[in-house]
Amino acid sequence: MDWEELHLVQLLARHGSLSAAARALGTTQPTLSRRLDAFEQKTQQKLFERQTSGLVPTAACLSILSALEQMEANALAVERRLAAQDDALAGTITVTSLDWLGDYLLAPILTRFAAAHPGVTIHLLNDARRFNLSRRDADIAFRFGSFDQSDIVERKVADIRYGLFAMQAYLDRFGHPNATGDGHAIVELAEVPVRVSLSTWLKDLLPDARVMLRANSIRSQLSAVETGAALATLPHFLAAGRDGLVSVDVGVAAPVLSLKLGVHQETRNLPRVRKLLDFAVSQFAGLRPKLNPPS
Question: What does each C-alpha distance from 66 to 18, 48, 60, 151, 198 come to in angstroms?
Answer without folding.
Answer: 21, 16, 12, 19, 38
